[in-house]
């Protein structure tokens, strides 16, 4: 009966089956498009490199080389879903990375250093969230202040690179867990675990539903009795925490902390999230889509490196994809608003 009534309403509106599918699943279309682009990139890379692209080594390295960006994209997804933005994550990552390297170099136990850098990132996220929620500062301005704060703190810790010699931290990157020709590192496991936890929180908890409700219509979320203020601040805390975790992973990856790390990385994270299907206006998107966006970004970079082309092409291609996805998102939003 339900299907029959749905078909009747479709006929009354004069919609084709394709239009009906788009109207019902429009929010997922950008994520589907990201998956399609990733598949096409794999096929194109395989053809260009004559069967030497889709290999266990290259696919394993894709996660290895993009674990840091993946963690940043997870935190950014929470913020963008609320309709906000976080420009501070690259600087916070640099600050927590250099802080961790400094603490470890001074003999601080790893059991104290790691929680300290995670809490440091979360604290900057808390500050940005408070500015946005209780002082009415626009997220762009508040997170821009966080960007300068994080970078300044990084320079206060050290103006030069600090090498990390702690075996526990270096183990995160140097260890290879192998299954035949495939491998994964602890940094990759941490990144995938972060994605899994975020997906669970966003889709299976009251807090996650509140995040989506805020991005959809903040005033309606308030009228429904949802704890909007607490959830918005928590989104920025999560983003800051993920930036701190990314600082740890980057330190393990590079074997050193450096105050100039992460310049522009916040833009890479935003691009990956948008390419993965999350609307910049908030309310729609999936953390798994953000993961696909990161892999699209990483695959483009890998193909360009194989081709030996200039890195400027990376920015051109990602910028073109970003523009395309924003146009698609606006079309979907306009269609949804027109149907109300």
Task: Characterise the protein shown here.
With 340 residues, the protein is mainly α. The chain is 76% helix and 3% strand. The chain has a two-stranded antiparallel ribbon. A hairpin with a 2-residue loop joins strand 2 (177-179) and strand 3. The protein is globular and about 55 Å long. Mean pLDDT is 88; it is low at 1-12 and 17-25.
Topology:
Layout: H1 2-13, H2 17-25, H3 29-48, H4 56-81, H5 89-105, H6 110-134, H7 139-157, E1 162-163, H8 167-174, E2 177-179, E3 182-184, H9 186-204, H10 206-216, H11 218-223, H12 228-254, E4 256-257, H13 265-275, H14 287-307, H15 312-339
Antiparallel strand pairs: 1-4, 2-3
Helix pairs in contact: 3-14, 4-9, 4-12, 4-13, 4-14, 5-6, 5-7, 5-12, 6-7, 6-12, 8-12, 9-10, 10-12, 13-14, 14-15
Approximately what portion of the residues adopt beta-strand conformation?
Answer: under 5%
State the helical fraction: over 70%
**Biggest sheet, strands in spatial order?**
1-4
Mean residue pLDDT: 88
Global Rg? 21 Å
- SSE pattern, N- to C-terminal: HHHHHHHEHEEHHHHEHHH
Counting DSSP E segments of at least 2 residues, the number of strands comes to: 4
What count of helical segments does DSSP give?
A: 15
